[in-house]
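Aim 2 progress update. The chain analyzed this quarter is reproduced below.
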Amino acid sequence: MTEKADLTAVLDRAAEGGRITPEEALELYRHAPLHALGQAADAVRRRRYAGTEHIATYIIERNINYTNSCVTACKFCAFYAAPKSDKVWTRDLDDILRRCAETVELGGTQIMFQGGHHPDYGVEYYEEHFAAIKAAYPQLVIHSLGASEVEHMARISGVSAEEAIRRIHAAGLDSFAGAGAELLPERPRKAIAPLKESGERWLEIMELAHRLGVESTSTMLMGTGETNAERIEHLRMIRDVQDRTGGFRAFIPYTYQPQNNALKGRTQATLFEYLRLIAVARLFLDNVAHIQGSWLTVGKEVGQLSLHYGADDLGSIMLEENVVSSAGAKHRSNRMEIIDLIRKAGRVPAQRATTYEHIVVHDDPANDPVHDHVVSHLSSTAIEGGTAHPELKILSTN
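Predicted structure tokens:
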């Protein structure tokens, strides 16, 4: 199906809302002209959001990293420390609540609670922390964790995944962030995360969460040595679950960062591969509402380009992020820069909620009330049990 006429027919069908097969998606990913691929994906976006197709969204959030102690030792990760290492640190609850307070003060609406698979942290740990956050800051959405953390905490506490999900949801978890998906197909997953659950098990837990009323996003780490066919298989696995549950709010692909990890940067996705994946994802995932561009890992300019390849959201203006940054993601941006990127892409910026409702639409640049300033040295306290944590540079304020 590599002849030009055949590819054009598939692109036209997808652009008009027709479902394409995994085999067709792979052919498009490998062979479709980049410009035509982007045009078709953008047509899908515009049709899906008819009436608001001129808008692109962002969210203000904070990633709170509660510990770097982790038993999974993923080869792509530069953040974790082995549990008995002298590099292990853990934040206490007071520190976590202080960071939540700062998030509220700076206009953030969402918390990403993100850390390692600590050998002692079961369901009870997350219940205590989520309940405390919700009691102190009920306005914050806790959009955190994923199937891997559920599997781990359930094992530590000796309960089922279903009980673990029910309990942390009751304690305050609003939705899952889709963490730990990495690559779902068996071969690449075993190569980079051999101690984690299988991709099939990851999806089983997400499907269970959806059926229990806890929605999530879905993610993909690309550029660790997977084949093109395995990238498309990852999309197929997500689409199949979404057909059954409808619980994935968004798909978020991001690129492997090469520093300070066991893979040593020997495999990376090119920026063109990333844009092609964004476009094919928009065409193939006809049952997933949102596609997010990852400016954090590919840079602001490519993030901006993703808005012309099917993405409708630029994700987070992060008040704190340490996990991906530890592997070399050094792209930084503030709220005004993201608003400007979106405007220069020919779209109207809108701050969104976790569930994608528009909070503020910046439709008049002359009367925009946003005035950002950079606050540095916000947090410089030493981490309990380890070395001093690097001072945080706040990326955006409101």
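The beta strands are 55-65, 110-114, 141-144, 175-176, 216-222, 248-255, 290-291, 313-318, 348-352, 358-361. The domain at 54-367 is CATH 3.20.20.70 (TIM Barrel). These observations will guide the mutagenesis experiments scheduled for the next reporting period.
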